[in-house]
Structures are given as C-alpha cells and as structure tokens.
Fold:
Amino acid sequence: MSALRYLSTRGRAPAVTLSEAIAAGLAPDGGLYVPERLPSIDLAAFDPDGDLAATATTLLTPFFAGDPLADALPAICAEAFTFNAPLRPLARPDASLLELFHGPTAAFKDFGARFLAACLRRLRDPDAPPLTILVATSGDTGAAVGAAFHQRSDLERSGVRVAILYPDGRVSPRQAHQLGSFGDNVHALRVAGSFDDCQRLVKAALNDAGLQREVPLSSANSISLGRLLPQMSYYAHAALRWWRAHGRPLDFIIPTGNLGNAMACVWTRGMGLPVGDIRLACNANGTLPDFFAGAGYRPRDAIATLANAMDVGAPSNFERLRWTFGGDDDAVRHALRAASIDDATIRATLLRHARDHDEVVCPHTATALAVLDREPRGDARHWAVVATAHPAKFDAVLEPLLGHALTVPPALAAMLERPAVAAPMGVDEQALGQWLRKLA
Ligand SMILES: *Cc1c(COP(=O)(O)O)cnc(C)c1O
Structure:
C-alpha cells in the first residue's frame, strides 16, 4: 500500500504525512486536514470475531499505511479502545441504542481523546520543548482530553500540558467539576463567552506564529484527525455486526454539534462499510438543519440549550463534510438529513421514554430519540440511536424532570470527589496569550 498524503481543506498548505497532520491539529492555512482520497476497504478484511480494537486496527490501516506510526497502530488501538460500545435493544423493535459512554469520562469523546494521546505519546521526542495542547470544549471533550493526558508520566516528563477552555456557566455542573478536577499538567480556563468563542480563541492562538515560537502549541479539538479517525471504529464495528447478523446495513441517528462524531460516520460509509441512512439530530442551534433544508451555510452565534455539548453555531467540521462531497452542497444534502429539536421537545422526549419504556438517556441522546420518534415504522431500516454521554453527567437537568436520582458510574464518581479549580478568562486573545506565556 502506498502512503496516503494529507491535504488541507483550504488547499493552501503543503501535503503532509498522517503523523504530521495529527501532531499539528490544524493545517497552517487554517483549514482541516483530510486524506487526499478516502480509502475503500474490503469487508472480508475484518475478523468476524474481532473486538472493537481489532476492528479499529483493520479499518484504520489504510490511513496509516507508510506512516511512521503504522507499525504501532495495533498497540495504539489496544491502548485506546479498552471499553466497549454495546448496541442495546430499545422498546421500538426497529431501533437500538449505541452506547458510547463506557469510557473514563462517560462520553464518546473518550474514544478520540485516548487514541490521540496514544499517537502523540509515540510521536513525541522526549527532548523537544514543552508542548501545550489547547482544547476548546462544549462540555465533554475537555474532560476526555484531560483524562487521556493526565498522570501519564512519560507525557508529563516530556513537558506535555493541557489547557482546557470551556464556556463559563454553559456546561453542566458535573461537567464543570470534571473539567477542573485534574490538576498537575491539566489546566482549566472558564471563558466568559460561548463554545464558539472558546473555539475562536484556540484557533487564534494556534495561528499566532509569535506566540507559537515562545509557547509551542497544538490542539486536541475534533478538528484533529487523531480524534476523528478513531471515531469511525464504533460505527464500523456496530454496522459489521449488524450486517453479519441481518444481512442489512445499519442506519444511524447521531446527536450533532460540531459535526465530529457524524463526520466519522459519513467517512465510515464512504469507505464501503454497511452504513445505511444517516440523520443528524441537532438542538435549537439551526445552522446545519437550515443548510440541509436548502438554505446556504450560515454560521451564527450559538444559543444555550439543554443539550449543551451541542451548542455550536459554527460547526468546524463542516469544511470536511463539504470536501468529502467535492464541494457540492447538493450532494451533501442528498447524503444526509438533519433536524432541529427544541428544548421543549427534548424535555418531552426524555420524560416519555423514561416513563413509558424505562429508557433514561442524556439530553443530547434525547435529540436523537426525538428524531427516531418522527421516523416511520415498519420499513426495512434499523436505527442505531447514538448515545453520546451517560445520563448521570446531566443530573441537574434530568433529576428534577424524572423525580429520582441517577446512578453515577464509578469513574465519574471518583472525579467528582476530587476538588476542582478553573481560572477565569475573557474572550481576549491577548489575555490568553499572556496566560499561556506564564504557564510556560
Ligand atoms: C460533543 C458531544 C456531542 C456533539 O458531538 P460533535 O462531534 O460535536 O457533533 C453530542 N453529545 C455529547 C454528549 C457530546 O459530548
């Protein structure tokens, strides 16, 4: 297999290897790295008895072919995928729940964050200057990246730090606690703004050559290929199992904000895996639903909703989605559909599924259940409703609604017992630059 090269969606950056793309995060022209072409894969290559790590290794091999990390790919997958993504039946016989919340921070972000950390650990020259990894989070990414980089002695010794930027007051209380609970090489900044503001601050810092000379920076947002590629694994694994058992593709409904999780599903289908229809379930932030309804792509300010990790008005992976369909917006609209679910519907859906079927999900997953509720029954499709976080992370929304306490998974409980600290930060590039220089 010849090595794939990686290009920027904006087309004004040199082609790089996958390792270089993973180490850089964002391309130097401000675009997102994409493979020069999406590889296709023969389904016979997958071991029918393989676990998630084995599926991931087979799936990602063509992306890593010829790369310095190629030989380490099985070990990277084994290190990252230490928990499962089970597909559980729902009350509706034509639907199942794909549970992506069995990792250490109880959200799907653990898959990508752990894989990225496993790659960077191997790419890092121990004598290189300290590296600060910036991550903007709408709630769950920051904790997953923090957990993946915290107390890894080899990373800490070689000077890898993490700075998490989150929108103050716009994440759940338990998410905020998790974000500030790490200490050591993981720092939390509570930003007086929205998630989009956090994302803009990170992009501005990464593009600031002067700052980068003094404080070398990298990113761990879903713009990083090191997070996007591993997220394809659970779609491939679930779809392959379904296809072997039923001889049909599996259809997905995906809670969507920044479009990282759904992008991975689109690429999985593009490689030839048995993925059928894909629906994006968005909250009241209508940038994507409006685009899919035929309007132009118009990013806007985010508004706060019950599904806070999806409060995104400018989904940064949209550039990748467009690239995937050759820049043809109509082709994008044919390939997927999107719906907007408002807070009243999120509440009603949470309540109805809990009361009638004992199906307790997080508010993000509820947007996908609401989309499922609108789908006709009785056709050949089977929907995998993607459960992006454990409901116990959102007790402040769910417990008053449901009238009972939720059981907290042990890893989350341990994080909540630690003290938490976060430094205040304005939406101010200069102030962030100063803070980073002081850290260095
Ligand atoms: C991040 C997140 C989402 C949105 O995922 P994107 O990749 O940003 O589209 C949905 N639900 C939860 C719980 C999340 O943490």
In short: The pocket of pyridoxal-5'-phosphate is lined by residues 107, 109, 138-140, 222, 255-262, 309-310, 362, 364, 388-389 (CB under 6 Å).
